[in-house]
Design brief:
The chain is an alpha/beta fold. The chain is built from 15 helices and 12 strands. The strands form 2 sheets. Strands 5-4-3-2-1-12 form a 6-stranded mixed β-sheet, with helices on one face. Strands 6-7-8-9-10-11 form a 6-stranded mixed β-sheet, with helices on one face. The two termini are 32 Å apart. The model has no long low-confidence stretch (mean pLDDT 93).
Length: 499
């Protein structure tokens, strides 16, 4: 019993270290050692079921601690109440913990092998890649390294997963030392240490182009009347005009309105459409707006519509990756209230869109889509020279989800070597350079507008060009390593004991 409790405590300790490495605590260096306790305990545990349960316990606590804001969203914005909100969030954390459970079982097979360091690191990285494919994706281990200059060098080649691999290998190295494996096995550390040989990220350069970002600070609980709606559109239009026509400043390249909890229907509302079109013509500037559109069957789409400087709609991007519970109800959760006020689930889009404007090309991705590296790279691979991320982070309230979301978006800039302009409802609106640095922001929870500077970029990174070759390769290598470890362990069990 005592040993079981100690093993469980070590698994939970790993979860706590991971939580501390993520905003709101943001002690990023802990990400390099966070997996040590879990790896030590699964290495010492011979039973598969117990390793599974140890990994599951670690994963449950991790997701519960990092995504605690989901409970607030369900309880408050989904009108579920505190108890029901906690119950559904509990089920969510249990489900997401299964990724860790699989890791716990397989890592235990690898930890006592000579290839433990690369095997465990590859397994962790590969399983991490499956989060988006098999369900909800959010803060990967490598995102904690967004402010670490040296580890970031690998990101344009492997995506964020290269940092995840390096951090997991450092944890595996310490765990191997704790369980007293042979010292020579640490030679594998040459792999992450070779990152020092990669080119440094680009130095900061002041942007030569300008995007006017409008941050309206709309309440998520606003009760819309025609008067309130008209006042909002008037304020956002006025902010756009002030930003675009600032005396002594050049004409901006773009005006961005965020995804917002407001009844913006560009295609259905002729008055609203005329207002946006007139604004674009009067400022001679393309405008991107977050709005709700419809499929041919009338189902809602979460869209970003671009209106040209001549006041004509030129493109529409429909959000591909929808937010569970916010824009659709996942299977088996039909009893949960959807956060959106739209009737029926949103329909996902299917195509990436690159929009020409002023001799350049840009793309817009929406809110939660920033958590999907393989999606964002497609925009750049199709020719986008700058990325616009429109988002409504107001559902996070004052909780850490907004800081987590910003770090995730910053990593997309590094992976693709592009400036990312974030236009959000109530923060954190920001300009992010190709090295992931925040160059400008607007104050949170404040109605404001800003002239964000950026540059158009044309170079394509290896990650943009090749995609998740590294992550999927890690998954294959990790599974093979675990399979070989399983065969080795069975031989040891079957080997006759000396008389």
């Amino acid at each position: 019993m005592r040993r079981t409790l100690l093993s469980l405590a070590l698994a939970v300790l790993s979860a706590l270290l991971l939580i501390l490495s993520v905003p709101k605590f943001d002690i990023a260096v802990l990400a390099t050692v966070a997996l040590v306790p879990l790896l030590v305990t699964v290495a010492r545990e011979p039973r598969h079921l117990r390793r599974f349960l140890l990994g599951w316990s670690c994963g449950f606590v991790y997701w519960f601690g990092v995504c605690y804001w989901i409970q607030f969203v369900l309880a408050f914005h989904g009108n579920m109440g505190e108890v029901a909100g906690w119950a559904v969030f509990f089920l969510f954390a249990l489900a997401k913990g299964l990724h860790f459970a699989v890791f716990g079982v397989l890592a235990g097979l690898i930890m006592n092998q000579p290839w433990a360091l690369p095997g465990v690191a590859a397994l962790w990285t590969g399983i991490e890649r499956t989060n988006g494919t098999l369900g909800f994706a959010w803060f990967t281990l490598g995102n904690a390294g967004i402010d670490m200059g040296i580890p970031l060098r690998i990101v344009p080649f492997t995506g964020v997963y290269g940092i995840s691999f390096a951090f997991a290998m450092f944890s595996a190295a310490i765990a191997v030392s704790v369980i007293r494996r042979a010292r020579w096995e640490l030679v594998w550390l040459v792999l992450p240490l070779s990152i020092y040989l990669l080119p440094a990220l680009p130095r900061y350069q002041r942007g030569a182009s300008t995007a006017v970002v409008v941050q309206p600070n709309i309440s998520e609980t606003e009760q819309w009347t025609q008067a309130r709606y008209d006042d909002l559109v008037h304020r956002m239009t006025l902010a756009s005009l002030r930003g675009a026509l600032t005396p002594g400043q050049p004409k901006p390249d773009l005006i961005a309105w965020p995804e917002a909890p407001a009844p913006f229907y560009y295609e259905e509302n002729a008055t609203f459409r005329d207002t946006v079109n007139t604004l674009a013509r009067s400022t001679r500037t393309p405008i991107v707006i977050g709005n709700v559109t419809r499929t041919a069957n009338g189902a809602p789409l979460n869209s970003a519509t671009t209106v040209s400087a001549e006041g004509q709609p030129v493109s529409r991007y429909d959000k591909i990756y929808l937010v569970p519970f916010g824009e659709f109800i996942p299977p088996f959760f039909g009893f949960v209230n959807r956060i959106s006020s739209e009737t029926g689930d949103f329909t996902p889009g299917s195509q990436v869109v690159v929009t020409p404007a002023g001799g350049h090309r840009f793309s817009t991705f929406i809110c939660y889509e920033s958590a999907f590296p393989h999606l964002v790279r497609r925009f750049v691979n199709n020719g986008a020279e700058v990325l616009l991320n429109i988002s409504n982070d107001g559902y996070f309230g004052h909780l850490a989800g907004r800081e987590q979301h910003l770090k995730i978006a910053r990593m997309r800039a590094v992976e693709n070597g592009r400036w990312v302009i974030r236009a959000t409802n109530d923060g954190i609106s920001a300009a992010i350079d190709p090295a992931g640095r925040i160059t400008q922001t607007l104050p949170d929870h404040t109605e404001a507008y800003g002239r964000f500077r950026f540059n158009y970029e044309s170079a394509v990174t290896p990650y943009t060009r090749l995609g998740d070759w590294f992550a999927w390769g890690c998954l294959a290598f990790g599974l093979v390593a675990a399979g070989v470890g399983f065969r080795v362990s069975r031989r040891r069990v079957a080997r006759p004991k000396p008389q």
